[in-house]
Amino acid sequence: MNGSTTVPEGLDTALGRVAAALAAIGSGDPAPYAALWAPGHDVTLYGAWGPVERGNDAVTGTFTWVGSRFSDGALVPRNDLVHADGDLAVTVGTEEGTVRVDGGEPALMRLRVTHVLRRVEGRWYLVHRHADFPPADPRRRS
């Protein structure tokens, strides 16, 4: 982890589960990623393909749809920043990998991603995800 603060107990393990779950969703299996979300209504998703959801059922249901679109690939997270304070943690970085979307040809996918995690009774859960496809940097000319 680049740019990390002192990592609280269990957070490294939770981030490892996130990485493994992203590999699974890139191959079409959303269950491991959906299982990382806190129960209840106080979780949110601002998805790269447009969905904005609130509540565990809506968020995890959206990942079932996302997983149905992927095959033959994996997404690998790179956390540029991991910051934790008490029972909250934030990661900022990218997810990248080669995947098939909707049965198409394998293609590189790169997302900018922010996750918020909350520790509940000693276990870290995802409570927010904001992802988007990075736009071209207007300062760089081809």
UniProtKB/TrEMBL annotation:
Residues 20-124 form the DUF4440 domain. Coiled coil: none annotated. It comes from the Bacteria. Pfam families: DUF4440 (PF14534). InterPro entries: DUF4440, NTF2-like_dom_sf. This is DUF4440 domain-containing protein. It comes from Pseudonocardia humida.
